[in-house]
Amino acid sequence: MPRPLAKIGNREKALIHVAKAQLGMSDEDYRAMLAGVGVKSSTELNPVQCDELMRRFKGMGFVPAISGGAARSRRRRPRVAEQREPLMGKIEAIILDTGLTWAYADGIARKMFGIDSVRFCDETQLWKIVAALSVHIKRQAKKEEGLK
After folding, report:
1. CA distance readout (Å), 114 to 13, 117, 124
2. Residue 137 phi/psi, 5° resolution?
């Protein structure tokens, strides 16, 4: 007789509740989603059911936040002079929203200006990097639109 699958952990349960909140789901809709995978509560979910539920959430537009090991690989925002801090904040926001890394921004600086890191860029160069990231976002949106 096959062993029943183990229940999911607290981390997975928390992610499910983050998805519910991010999607603005009512309790009624959330319970219907759970029933759709065969459970009444997130505490009853096994890993297979959890994966199916997360696929459904992602289909509705849920975008999981970066956490754990992935967050560490994204590293902190480089320290720069005070006058460049707002631009670095803008670059950081774009990076976090799109799931890119600081290494990607460093690659833009390297390709456009021959500078190894965005932290060494001046204000004009940072504005150009923001523009390049904006172009990247528009291209990605067009590409995704074409796939639909």
Report:
1. 45, 9, 14
2. -60, -45
Tokens of 24: 């603005």
The CA distance from 140 to 27, in Å, is 34
pTM of model > 0.70: no
Given a contact cutoff of 8 angstroms between Cβ atoms, the answer to whether 77 and 87 are in contact is no
Residue tagged 């975008």 (tokens): 63
Report yes or no: 100 and 92 within 8 Å, Cβ to Cβ.
no
Burial 75-91 (b: 16+ CB within 10 A, else e): eebbebeeebeebbebb
In which region does residue 121 sit, left (phi positive, over 0), alpha (psi from -120 to 50) or beta (all else)? beta
Cα–Cα distance for residue pair 132/98, rounded to 1 Å: 13
How far from chain centre, in Å, is Cα 90? 16
Task: Give the tens place of pLDDT for each residue, 62-99.
Answer: 887 655 444 444 556 666 777 888 898 899 889 888 88
Q: Which residue is listed with tokens 């289909």?
A: 59
Contact yes or no for 131/123 (Cβ under 8 A)? no
